[in-house]
Amino acid sequence: MACPNCSQLLGQCNAMCCDQTTPIPVSTWRSRQSDIQRPLTNAVPLDRNYVMVLTGDRRCVFLKSDLSCAIYPESGETDSRSSECQNYGNESHILMTCPFQSASGGVRKRWDRRDILRKVTDEGHRVLSHMMTQSRVGHARVEK
Ligand code: SF4
Ligand code: SF4
């Protein structure tokens, strides 16, 4: 995540940005199987480069119980997360907008948060439904 104030806000947001709809690069999915944190129900190819991994609790398959990312790069390591993860919070799109803090790290007011959450939820449902329609759910799995 690109947001500067996540550690301060995690108690409130519960890392809501790290959900199962986050696209995962196929190369990462294949190489980071040992970092999986929870049972998955399906791995749906979105295109040749990305996969969406569905889980029982709807969280990202790489989200740890302490709300940190199991594939977050160590210093000097290449970042194998998707560009969405790397740039989340830059406000380039409503789905890249954190409801809890602005791109510069300012903590949002309650009304602003509520308004963004509503827009994110609406757009998230729309995009998820589109992705599920476009993919071959139930017919295709990305193998390890
Ligand atoms: S980017 Fe926003 S939702 Fe995600 S962990 Fe940081 S504060 Fe929470
Ligand atoms: S890969 Fe990491 S940063 Fe991206 S959604 Fe999953 S847990 Fe969050």
Description:
The structure is a single chain. The protein has 144 residues and is α+β, with helices and mostly antiparallel strands. It is 31% helix and 10% strand. The chain has a three-stranded antiparallel sheet with strand order 1-3-2. It has one domain. It binds iron/sulfur cluster (2 copies). Residues 1, 3, 6, 9-10, 13, 15-17, 88-89, 98, 100-101 line the site of one iron/sulfur cluster.
Short structural summary:
The protein has 144 residues and is an alpha+beta fold.
Layout of helices and strands, plus pairs?
Layout: H1 6-13, E1 24-25, H2 26-31, E2 40-45, E3 50-55, H3 83-87, H4 110-134
Antiparallel strand pairs: 1-3, 2-3
One iron/sulfur cluster binds at residues 18, 22, 60, 62-63, 69, 71, 81, 85.
**What is the share of helical residues?**
25-40%
Q: Which value, in Å, is the CA radius of gyration?
A: 15 Å
**SSE topology string:** HEHEEHH
Query: Given the helix and strand composition, which structural class is it?
Result: alpha+beta
Number of separate structural domains = 1
Total strand segments: 3
Strand order of the main beta sheet, please?
1-3-2
Distance between the termini: 26 Å
Strand count, sense and closure of the main sheet?
3 strands, antiparallel
Tell me the number of helical segments per DSSP (H or I, 4 or more residues long): 4
Strand content: 5-15%
Low-pLDDT residue spans: 137-144
